[in-house]
Structure formats: C-alpha cells, structure tokens
Amino acid sequence: MVAWVSRGRRLVGQLGAHWRIGLLGGVVAGTSYGIVVWAMHVARLSHVAALRETSVIIAALIGTFVLREAAGGRHIAAAVLVTLGNALLRAAG
Questions:
Q1: What is the pLDDT of residues 16-45, one digit of tens each?
Q2: How far is 25 from 15, CA to CA, in rounded Å?
Q3: How far apart are CA 41 and CA 7, in angstroms?
Q4: How many CB atoms lie within 10 A of CB 82?
Q5: Coil, strand or helix: which one is 5?
Q6: How far, in Å, CA of 77 to CA of 68, rounded?
Q7: Could you report the per-residue pLDDT of 68-78, keeping only the tens digit for each?
Q8: Rounded distance, CA 59 to CA 24, Å?
Q9: CA-based Rg of the chain, rounded to a whole angstrom?
C-alpha cells in the first residue's frame, strides 16, 4: 500500500516490467518458509534453527563473491560468530 500511495501510476509501469521476478521471489520465499516449517516437524528444533542461521554466512558469501561487495570486518566477524555458534550447537548434540 505504501508503494501504491507513494508511486501511484508509476508503480503500474514498474510492476508490468518486473512482475516475473517479483513472482519468483514470492514463490521462493514461500517455499523456503514451508521447508522450514516442515523441517521443524521432522527434526530437532535446535538443528533446524542452527541450519537457518547459516543463511547469514551464505548471504555474506554471495555478497562478497557474486555481488562484489566489500567484505569488511563486520561481515567477517558475523560469519565467524555464526559459524562458532553452529559448531557449539552441533557439539552439544
């Protein structure tokens, strides 16, 4: 609604040009959510939560190597912390 109010008729043109990528993004996001909900029913919650947190590392890698973003100290520190947290969860069982 915010986009409709702020952009008005320009939004229609933008939607017409990019509706396929928007639809794909919606399908991927919905599928991802469904997989997580399913995984929570068939596996231990701690394992599912740890696996979900690895998306931070994957996003950092995509940003660095695909999108050519600068990998600053914060990116690296966050990836290391998530990796250590996952290792601790894995060691705990």
A1: 778 888 899 999 999 989 998 999 899 888
A2: 13
A3: 42
A4: 17
A5: helix
A6: 18
A7: 888 788 878 88
A8: 18
A9: 18
Q: Give the per-residue pLDDT at 79.
A: 82
Q: How far apart are CA 62 and CA 84, in angstroms?
A: 20
Q: Please state whether the predicted TM-score (pTM) of the whole model is above 0.90.
A: no
DSSP structure class, residue 66: I
Q: Distance between terminal CA atoms of the chain? A: 45
Residue 40 tokens read as 């929570």
Pairwise CA distance, residues 38 & 32, whole Å: 10
Backbone angles phi, psi at 69, to 5 degrees: -80, 155
- Count of residues in the chain: 93
Residues 63, 75: contact at Cβ < 8 Å? yes
d(CA 39, CA 55): 15
